[in-house]
Prior knowledge:
There is one protein chain. By secondary structure, this protein is α/β, with parallel strands linked by helices. It has one domain: Rossmann fold (3-Layer(aba) Sandwich). Helix content is about 40%, strand content about 15%. It is built from 10 helices and 12 strands. It has helices at about 10-20, 40-50, 70-90, 125-140, 160-170, 185-205, 210, 230-240, 270-275, 285-295, and strands at about 1-5, 25-30, 55, 95-100, 145-150, 150, 170-175, 180, 185, 215-220, 225-230, 245-250. The strands form 4 sheets. A 6-stranded parallel β-sheet has the order 2-1-3-4-5-10, sandwiched between helices. The protein has a two-stranded parallel sheet with strand order 6-9. The chain is globular, with a radius of gyration of 19 Å. The mean pLDDT is about 95. NADP nicotinamide-adenine-dinucleotide phosphate (NAP) binds near residues 59 and 98.
Amino acid sequence: MRILLTGKNGQVGNELNKILPQFGEVIATGRNEMNLADPSQIRRVVQQVKPELIINAGAYTAVDKAESDQELAKAVNGIAPKILAEEAKNKDALLIHYSTDYSYNGEMNHRPYLESDSPAPNSVYGKTKLEGDQAIEKSGASHLIFRTGWVYSKRGESFLHTILTLAKEKKELRIVNDQTGTPTWCRSIAEATCKAINNILEKREDSLSKTVSNISGVYHMTCQGETNWHGFAQMILELSCPDNMPKLLAISTKEYPTPAIRPTYSVLSNSKLKKNFGIQLPHWEHALKQCLSDIS
Ligand SMILES: NC(=O)c1ccc[n+]([C@@H]2O[C@H](COP(=O)([O-])OP(=O)(O)OC[C@H]3O[C@@H](n4cnc5c(N)ncnc54)[C@H](OP(=O)(O)O)[C@@H]3O)[C@@H](O)[C@H]2O)c1
């Protein structure tokens, strides 16, 4: 099978690019091969590659920057997924796409969010990502939208990377403790995506896209458990520099204002993913330990 992957240099895309070849030929693209802000280039690349599966791991993920860069965020997060979905529909390809816990407003206070809960994003990033999800849903293409959150890796711009860097430079860190979510290792997402593809291949009757057509939709895909950013930082420091930990102070979101409003609570129930695909991601603490001990 031919797989077209976007966002090959991102956290999730980089992990996918390493493990997707088990399924066939992977045509991995980054900004240089396919600019997601350029609809005609997207159409041209999809038409050249003729994929059976498109995996869109590319996105405009700078949550605060998006507040003042709305047009580009909308092009990459809102319009590009629509074009990919239209092309997938035309070519009878399956589209796998990633969405965000920032699709929800965070006001849920008694249980994790379900896919049936209404999205109501607070930020430009969340709004543009939701536009992309809704365009895919409307397109009629076979699709799986994996909605995840708090994605981290040792490389790139993630929270984990920031804490590891600051721990070497500072004696004291002030970290927000009133936003609750689930840290999710990018490799856990890539592995769960591959399990879903395997599951579809086992059931395959006709094309990949036809096999998925009646289970298309949004699926929450995060690690298990929950914490806040302070709890996440605490665990990172305990695991990575137990004898040389900077002092960790808990502060409120009000004490650390950012351009984008983030949800207070964005824990996602993964029960639909487990029910339809038999997939469960590891507990966030377990995944973090694995990530920190990974030497690849
Ligand atoms: N990061 C999180 O905490 C988080 C949380 C919830 C959901 N998600 C979702 O999970 C998915 C994967 O996120 P991630 O954390 O892997 O993101 P990431 O590390 O920021 O990677 C995104 C990739 O998209 C590429 N990209 C951005 N603009 C582009 C453009 N105009 N043309 C082509 N490529 C472009 C970036 O390229 P460059 O490397 O050249 O910049 C980057 O490699 C995304 O859909 C994201 O919305 C992420």
